[in-house]
Fold this sequence. Notes:
alpha+beta; 10 strands
Amino acid sequence: xxxxxxxxxxxxxxxxxxxxxxxxxxxxxxxxxxxxxxxxxxxxxxxxxxxxxxxxxxxxxxxxxxxxxxxxxxxxxxxxxxxxxxxxxxxxxxxxxxxxxxxxxxxxxxxxxxxxxxxxxxxxxxxxxxxxxxxxxxxxxxxxxxxxxxxxxxxxxxxxxxxxxxxxxxxxxxxxxxxxxxxxxxxxxxxxxxxxxxxxxxxxxxxxxxxxxxxxxxxxxxxxxxx
Length: 227
């Protein structure tokens, strides 16, 4: 399991609880499926393969599913999402481009945010329509990835699944990517379980964490259970 450090590990069920996307849909997108005699290829190949024939997701897969689901909810078909991924891989030289901070959608097409440098060194921001292969200048929705911290290359580093207010973070380099209390790095599932059994103050003493960390963990896990 040491090779999964920094990658994260999630089953479709675990991913579903975090993303609020049905596990069956996640499995379909990552395994491919057949409907009415027609084969639909996987949207992409998961970054984790444990060799047992089951579907697992890494942190980047988690972020890809999150964005793919958002695009599809805006009316973009899964087939167009898959086509956008294939096109964008060549443009940005990134194996999992959908999880970067460069994608936008207007509900019909998917755009890739690009920055071009002019002859005199000035930078200009454009939107490349991945299907029409032309630059578009139109008003579109705000970036989808507001709760993600990105590195300097635009790749996701951390995800704040309940927003930054709750201070619960998903970090593939810690706890195999399970949600943790940002202040203490203790998994929220652990703090919440002990907090329910021993009370908030008892859990805080047992793990030497502030009571606010236990309260946040319980709130977050209650949200996950309710989803």
